[in-house]
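Q: My labmate handed me this sequence with no annotations at all. I'd like to see what the chain might look like in three dimensions before we decide whether it's worth expressing. Could you predict it?
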Amino acid sequence: MAEQLDHRLFDCVQVNLAELADRLHGPGTHLAMGRVLRFWPRPGADALPTVEPQVDSQVAESAALLGLRVTRRARIASAGELEPGTGCYAVADAYHLPWVPYHRKEHLQHSFLVEPDGDGVAVVDGYHNDTQWGAARPGRWPLSREELAEALPEGALTFDIAAGDRPADRTPLVELADAGTYVAAYADHPDRVRAVRGLTLQTWLLSRSRHLHAAAMGLDTDTVRAHLDEWNALAKQVYLASRRVSAGRAEPRAVYDRLLECLATDHVAFTEPTEPVVVSTVDNDEVPTGVRDSVTAVIGTVLGTPPPADARTLGEIPGFSSFRMMEIVERIESDLGVEFAAEDLVPEKLTHVDGLCRAVLAAGGTR
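A: Here is what I predict for the chain of 367 residues:
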């Protein structure tokens, strides 16, 4: 049975190439993109290295992996120059795109497919992500020609893409550079707000690429699952750190050692898997009823429902996300008059009721 496309595995440039590959070659083709696992940073802005590829090189490599051919590349100045069709793939500023939560919020490059639809067009976008402005989910959006023009006031980078030979090679290609200089650049950068904000994108990209590689190679050992969970936790912790640093508060420096460890473990998890030893960061000691009641009340207020008594983590509650986690932390600090220690800003604690309670107690809270 062909693998269904899991949109959560891809970034906003990759995902619609994956969509197109499955359309042209059949379901499951998208996973061919994941046979390459790379950590090869390039120079970025503000003296910070980046693992984010440049759009042209990313489209070229991804198309080759997926058995696609770029037959035409053009930088258009307006929507009137766009030619909707089966392989019409475009990249434009998400700030102007009305179907994504970045609309009028943040500038970043974002891809989509454009098809004819009556007198107008239909935009197909498989992007799946939770943002501070809401959720992005895969879908198809009919637009009039006028609406398309409004979405592309600065034009777009466009590609006409056709089917090539269906990819048959699933040989893994793992290219992992030394991580020390990369991590040090973020740890030691003088502008802490800019550095931690940049690292939020970096860890998000690194986490998704590792999930994609594991899915493409069928890596489903305990070692790989534990390692992917660690990447997820790191990405969440860095997001929390970014919010705190932006508010002028203490930065959890442990994230840099954790990032180094994740990058080092890539070599083990994706080449010579072994059984890991998993140590829980949440102990089983009882916490005062008053603290638990206060924390539970805040969770219920933010999520619209209190955590069930048998829930192992807050992630089991519908609507919970990294952004809601940050709201819960900020609301607990405000309502209970405490400030969490920087070292307690880790998802292993903040996604459990007991972990949140112990963070409150560590901060001097008594109710």
